[in-house]
Amino acid sequence: MSDQLLLVCVLVAAVGSSPLCGAAGFNAAQATAVTAAAQTSNQDGVKITVEPRGFPRAKAWDFAITLETHTRRLDDDLVSGTTLLADGKPYRPLRWEGSPPGGHHRKGILSFGVVIPPPQAVELQIRRPGEAGPRVFRWQRGP
Questions:
Q1: Maximum distance among all alpha carbons in the chain?
Q2: Which residues does 24 contact at the CB level (< 8 Å), separation at least 6?
């Protein structure tokens, strides 16, 4: 199954079935184990990697986030500095479970409530102190 078809089937599994997904051997039980592709933003000496986890059937929408730098302390407050846009509607994080502010390397999970119905597009915006605009990470349902 192609990656694009797999992502479509994951999103379809949240709202019903699809003959295309069934014919490809995909079922709703597999949806919980699938993750969308990780994305990376590298600017101003700070690398941020974001990987969605457990979409769309998880009890919470989790994003594994890694921040790395060799030039400054990572004092970001990821709960107050991050917004999830689901089809343009903003959602605030529920919690951050991971490394505390400080240091040059941070890892953790940023959790949001489940968005119902599943959106066509998801965008995670991370605002960092001293940067002109947010870092933007986007995922979209296939055709």
A1: 51
A2: 1, 5, 9
Q: For residues 38 and 12, give the distance between their C-alpha atoms in angstroms, rounded to a whole number.
A: 20
- Cβ atoms 27, 1 nearer than 8 A: no
Residue type at position 104: H
Q: Tokens 């949240």 identify what position?
A: 14
Kindly state the helix (H) or strand (E) to which residue 86 belongs, with its residue range.
strand 82-86
Tens digits of residue pLDDT in 21-80: 333 333 333 333 335 799 999 999 999 999 998 776 678 899 999 999 999 999 999 999
Structure tokens at 56: 């769309």
What is the rounded CA–CA span in Å between residue 34 and residue 52? 9
For residue 63 the two structure tokens come to: 């994003």
> Residues 107-142: pLDDT tens digits?
999 999 999 888 899 999 999 999 999 999 999 876
